[in-house]
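Record 1 of the preview.
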Amino acid sequence: MARQTINTGSLANDGTGDTLRGAGTKINANFSELYTLLGGDAVGAGTTQLTTDGLDIIGTSFTTSIGAADPGSDIEIDFPATAGNIVVDAATQTLTNKTLTAPEVDFGTFSVMRLLDADSSHTYTIVTGGLSANHNLNIPGLSDSDTIVTNTTTATLTNKTLTTPTITRATIHEHLADSAGVPVVNFTGRLNGNTSSRLRVATTPSANVTLSAFGGTADIGLDVTAKGNKTINLSKYSTNIQNIAAGANIGSGQTDITASIVKITGASGATINLQNAVASGTILHVIRANETGTQTITPTNFLQGTTVDFTANDTATLIYDGSNWYVVGGQGYAIS
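->
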């Protein structure tokens, strides 16, 4: 019903206004409508009722009561100029285009999550794969700030254990270590605080690859051992040649043997003293230069004689068995 206005006439008591009965009828109709809307008389579904606690909205079976807590100061609640539903804390609802500042989400479920980058110009969209069951994605307990590692970005991993990994074109810095952390293969000339003996692999763009013994001690051997009844197969090999002059002392305790081939140079002179080798099985190939006179090698322990004599271009092969030197082959030498 529209509001009914009482006609008071043009002038007082001029007889042009509503009668007292007519004015009373309009007053009663207006109050009746307000009374019904604000909770008077019997009200039905779809009506509202003003109560001392707030406002009741009468439904078919239940009533929605709207109230307010006692505030500590004057407050304003503004409804946006947009159609929509009020969001309450216990209802299951969908929020669209909402900005949450410093929210705390407990056990949230996200179908798509987007994170703004540092300057809010782009987003990270977190995309999940399909699962056949629920799984946990565990984040470790951190003692300091850290960085998530992804599969295509360049990153440095520290204190990580890889179990049965597949590595393609790996770049190894400094060394490879065993399960105890002891270096076994080095790729640089740095000990990095560990003096254990190990193999070193060195390469250059245009020169040979070098395999050498490496570690913190001065003398380190390099043992290559086959297993069972198999042998070590070398397609070809070479060794350094050490020039030795008459009167030299070579071998353990004197001038170390630095090559498997010894070339005797110079004319006839004093005998060359061959000390015992450090390792059993040491093989020494001896070449006499194409020079005049005879040069003599005197091994410290030599069961086949006392000396081995070499004239120009003579050769001999000597083997140390751990106690004595033996001549096993060559050409032109003489034992005396």
